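ERR on first pass: missing label on line 2. Operator R.T. fixed the label and resubmitted. Corrected input:
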Amino acid sequence: MNQDVVIVGGGIVGCAIADRLARAGVAVCLVERDVLGGAATAASMGHLVVLDDDPAELTLSSYSCALWRELAPLLPDNADYRTTGTLWIARDAAEMAEAERKRTRLAAAGVNGELLTAQQLAACEPALAPNLAGGLRVAADAVVYPPVVAAWLARRAVAAGARLRCGVAVSAIGDGEVVPDDGSRLRARHIVVANGCSVPELLSGAPVRRRKGHLLITTRLQPQVRHQLVELGYVQSAHGEASESVAFNVQPRPTGQLLLGSTREFDAPAGSVTPRLIARLVERAVEFLPGLAGRTALRAWTGFRPTTPDHRPLIGPWPLRAGVWLAGGHEGLGVTTALGTAELLAAQLLDLPLPFDAAPYAPGRFTSAVASHVH
Amino acid sequence: MSTDVRLRVDGVEVVVPAGCSVAAALRLAGHVSTRRALDGGGRGACCGMGVCFECRVRINGVERLGCLARVADGMEIVCDA
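pass 2 clean. output:
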């Protein structure tokens, strides 16, 4: 079977790319070894957030969030798209100064943020602890239920002519072909590898490392929260190289439940829940939301984020294999940046004007190291 | 020594054997559905061993699993968890 493009991986990134290319008239086949929107997509919080601590991350996330706002009216109800906004919380004067710098950086990218004093923060979210210094409210940020959106994007791709093969694992990538484990061959001019943490299984030496996270969801009798709440120290946790870190990150679900994150662990191969880390996650959350103490947790689970050494995704041609493209390594921002990733990859693949400079995300930034590793 | 305890379920007094679980007490008192799912459907004790979380109720103001709690005299149970 021949097509223009085969996409390996039906997470939200692969589904977004399939949708983008299929609607451009490209003959696409999307191959997913398990279910659409499983793995990292299903384990994620679905927080659509503009992050600004790296200029390239700011460009990609703000561009993507604008695409999400355009898409939102088309999404089905069970995608649970809600403009909760993000409330970045400062515990002290130093973090309040960081909130101000964040507001300035976001404003430069056209994203509005509103600084809140301690009193305004308390009025905005009365369930927060009384000893906090203030915060930054980014009203346009949103949340979404990622597995539903991934499947919806894939269905829209199929409606535009894409082929979808679920339950088919890819064992290798050959010259101009993808080799599924069912003995078939999928020939294509272009192959897009978008299988998250499994990228190195198909592209030897691709710099993607798994970083485990825990999430926990409560029952419905909880403190009332309106915004996605994130501590300003979150970025140190996300971009630090500590083998283990915990940051306060809470999302109100439409049901009245609270979704609690987030932990980060390198070198934790097992997918099991670690009670010690759940305890740290809950203790951290109670520092910010004292009313959580003594409440009931319904369920906890884990997932793996695909990370790169510089915490930027890999979007573009893989220089070591002609016709092979990468869209992966998004760490905790894969849902936020899926739509922008699809736009940037499609522009490169179809030779269209780029929405923004592709160089910061080019997989080639790592390939000299990979080449010496491979040969 | 009495082998019965008195407790209140949604404000109504019921008498149940001492030593039974709250989930069992609710069933004995005729409450099969003890909470509501989001779609309005009834939910009640299913596994009876602390796994399914379907039997959660408020006991003396605190949300707990009915199957893992023992009845006690004067207990206030509210089926709104």
